[in-house]
Amino acid sequence: MSCDSLDIIPFKNKNKLQVNIPGSKSISNRALILAVLNNKPVKLNGILKSEDVEIMISCLRELGIKIENQADGEALLVNGTSGVIPSQKGDLNVGNAGTVARFLTALLALQQRGEFTLDGSEAMRKRPMKGLIVALESHGTKFEFCGDEYCFPFKIICKGLTSDNWEIDASNSSQIISAILLIAPLISGNTHINLINGTVSRPFVNMTLEMMKEFAQEISGNLIISDDRYEIPCFQYQLTQNEYQIEPDATAASYFLSLPIAIGGDIHVNGIQDCKLQGDIEFCKIISKCGLSLSKTDNGIEVSFIDHINGGNFDFNDISDTFLTLAALSPLLDSPLKIYGIAHTRKQETDRVSGMVNELRKLGLNIEEEHDSIYIIPHVDLNKFIEQRPVEIDTYKDHRFAMSFAILGSHDLFKDQQPWIRILDPQCCSKTFPRFFDVLSQCRSESR
Q1: DSSP per-residue string spanning 121-158
Q2: How far is CA 47 from the centre of its chain?
Q3: Does 59 have pLDDT greater than 70?
Q4: Strand, coil or helix: what is 361?
């Protein structure tokens, strides 16, 4: 694969394909933080091998946390320290990893002493951090900004955290409230949290709360969750079996669950039948409403293309990471598609709403863009609107653009098995799914 671009070779599926999905990034990075907060060593099985997770591991090692590879890298042994960081100084780079940026900042703020400098990529310097920083500042942490206020890079001066009432604005990112929730049990006294202006992607907050319970052998006091209010008692994280299994990534699964829209036939996605932590598994309901046939098996989910695929109106606020998956396939739908609840994705790796509109317009589609939604009208004969091929798809250094449009490009639009979609910067997939194009190529090989 070229570093600069990759032409997607179309194919038609004539067999029942089997696909394995790597571990969840969201669960992997939460599990790493929870393992550090644990009071004993924790073995993490099924850890994702990706750029975001490697950044988290690297930062934790920089801070003196002992992390050992086991089982050929399929597992990690993390030396839990009850949240106490061995190092009291450090220069850390969080890249463009949102979970690392927010979770690590909160973990450092928990420390009784220490000074740390944090920075990220150019894109990360523009991503929402203010809600988290303001909350930490009001409870004892000092920040010194090296550039724009409330943005990376900054120095964090740790003085511990008070258990006064927390007022948190997580309206731009659910990772802000998740970051505080993860460390809340180790703040002295009961932590009362009031969420201002609600939040987006609520299933990720639910994921955080469920994992907190899984890593707590016993919670002394009541963990109260009511609308936008949380009361977290002080308790010690202690994983009962000192071992934790990470689920396959439901967001990554969305690409292959929807692949039959492009190539037809049947696909069995292994290991995702019991995803209980990840809200993105709800993507299954949306593509089922569009016309794909889905059924849960003992060891996965099987999806089949029956006849045709329709559009519809869908709220993606809770599962916004998957909106690009369906939007990119909109040219193949038989009726218009409206996706809404996605305004917050304008502040993710890139402005995902405008980026998706820009790339779909290269295919000649009629699109109405609003701040919180896109309305897409597919063409009956899409091939007549492609002026030159392959169409080059900009990915904006965003892995989800690369993977979503690669699924579209797998459709044999011109019935000649020749590429009509070219993905620019395909290696951006290393952020969460480094082997994505290998898995797609395997599907192509086994489809004949």
Answers
A1: -TTGGGS--HHHHHHHHTTT-EEEESSSTTSSSEEEE-
A2: 14
A3: yes
A4: helix
DSSP secondary-structure letter at 171?
Answer: S
Element (H, E) at 17: strand 16-20
User: Is residue 3 a contact partner of residue 424, using CB atoms and an 8 Å limit?
Assistant: no
How crowded is residue 171: how many other Cβ atoms within 10 Å of its Cβ? 17
Q: Are 46 and 259 in contact (CB under 8 A)?
A: no
- Among the listed residues 252, 356, 264, 360, the one whose alpha carbon sits nearest the alpha carbon of residue 309: 264
Distances (CA, A) of 416 to 256, 264, 383, 443: 22, 16, 12, 18
What pLDDT, on a 0 to 100 scale, did the predictor assign at position 86? 97
Span of 187-191, 261-265, 376-380, 398-402 with lowest mean pLDDT:
187-191
Q: What's 274's DSSP letter? A: T
Bond before 419 cis per omega within 30 degrees: no
**What's the full length of the chain, in residues?**
448
Contacts of 98 (CB under 8 A, 6+ apart): 124, 127, 173, 175, 348
User: Whole-angstrom Cα distance, residue 46 to residue 41?
Assistant: 16
Q: Which range (205-209, 238-242, 259-263) has the least confidence?
A: 238-242
For the ranges 83-87, 181-185, 262-266, 387-391, the lowest mean pLDDT is seen at 387-391
Tokens of 37: 């907060």
Q: From the CA atom positions of the chain, what is the Rg in Å?
A: 22
Beta carbons of 312 and 326 less than 8 angstroms apart: no
**Is residue 422 classed as helix, strand or coil in its secondary structure?**
strand
Q: What is the mean pLDDT of residues 236-246?
A: 93
Report how far apart, in Å, the C-alpha atoms of 297 and of each of 104, 249, 256, 273 are. 38, 17, 16, 7
Residues with catalytic annotation?
321
Question: What's the Cα-to-Cα distance from 329 to each of 134, 170, 263, 377, 432, rounded to whole Å?
Answer: 40, 31, 11, 12, 21
State the DSSP H helix or E strand holding residue 32, giving kind and residue range, or none if neither.
Answer: helix 25-37
Output phi, psi for 416, to 5 deg.
-130, 5
How would you classify the pairing of strands 229-232 and 166-169?
A: unpaired
Structure tokens at 271: 């290991």
Q: What angle do CA 89, 95, 100 make, to 5 degrees?
A: 70
Instruction: Summarize pLDDT for 12-25 with one digit per residue, the tens.
Output: 998 899 999 999 99
What average pLDDT does the segment 423-443 reach? 97
Those residues whose C-beta lies under 8 Å from the C-beta of residue 86, and which sit 6 or more positions away, are 63, 64, 65
- pLDDT for position 71: 75
- By CB atoms closer than 10 A (0-12, 13-18, 19+), residue 138 is middle
